[in-house]
Amino acid sequence: MNTNTAVTAGLGLKPQHYEAASTCRAPSLWFEIHPENYMVAGGPRLAWLESIRTAHPLSLHGVALSLAAAAAPDEEHLRRLATLVRRFEPLLISEHLAWSQWSGAYRPDLLPVPRTKEALLQVAANVDRTQEVLQRRIAIENPSHYLAFESHDYGEVDFLAELARRTGCALLLDVNNVYVSANNLGYNAAEVVDSVPSDLVAEIHLAGHSTDAAVETLLIDSHDAPVAPAVWALYERLIERIGPRPTLVERDAEVPSFDELLRERAQAHAILQPLREAA
Description:
This protein is an alpha/beta fold.
């Protein structure tokens, strides 16, 4: 698969949009899926993906490996994920710097972890194991933050860069997560996007956020609204520095029509396309 094809903008694939996605021929469009929804032996969803893949590259964005937990990834989960990877040969594979299970208990969220030396060792071991089973490099996404930890040994960018150095993984920079976290914890989002090593960024995510109903100054990474103007500005600042990268526009709640998502995706495509042509 030609990786240059996806150095533009993609969309998260939703079941209600399968038919429209199958027939869409927007230039260089690619789709991202959560593999946990497709790790089955057969059925209509896999058939739909096969149809869509004939026209558009796919990306797998995992939400359940719990790479930041103090335990190795579940081997059965990894096996099923590897089967999906072999079947669909995705352009990109990614997961989160987060945990969702602990001592056999599961949480319906992607929770951040204190960036300690011990956590770095565990996360690196989990990333190594994942890449070994998948036989693929994966990209790790920065999480959203709502509360400050006092026990960090590393800054967020330093932690991610060291993780990449130790494991050979790439980074998925979620610009909305940077903006949300900077607002909630009181630091400068532009300084973060300016400090991420350009050679490590394999993918970028853009999404909308919302304001907490109880605490109006708290932003929530809700993926239920269009990308905010301030996030678009950070995104343009980033790619002006590092060059074009595959960029996903996410919408996971209050999902609009496929045509409306395409219009938002076209905004990212218009930013990337001149840089692609100049490269």
